[in-house]
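Dear colleagues,

As part of the handover before I leave the project, I'm documenting each prediction I ran so the next person doesn't have to rerun anything. This entry is a single chain, and its sequence is reproduced below.
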Amino acid sequence: MPEVLDYTSTKGAIVGFTRSLSLQLINREIRVNTVAPGPVWTPLQPASMTAEIIPKVGSQTPMGRAAQPYEIAPSYVFLACNQCSSYFSGQVLHPNGKKLCCLFLIVRVHTDTVDGIAFAGGMIVNA
């Protein structure tokens, strides 16, 4: 969609910036994370879009609608709560109205000296 090219380019740059900045600041015990929501109803929509586009905002998500601010607020609260997110840095939370499924490759390790499960890798895919 050419009408959002500048927006999507900026959003991608913020992801890279978040990851790089987190690597630079983690030694100072500063965590850097980002929330990258999908479409959200805010005063920006009616102020910046035409009347024919407004009803379509969020219709391209699997949920078929834009989020309300209260639906994405827990992402910000989670990252602000050190007790909950102290091991998160350089991460991007995506409250975007999609159903995601986590797939992990788990390797069972069994030798004469080690018996346990090792995490070998993982990815998130759309379900």
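Strands lie at 34-35, 92-93, 100-110, 115-126. Residues 66 and 90 are 26 Å apart (CA to CA).

All the best with the project,
I.
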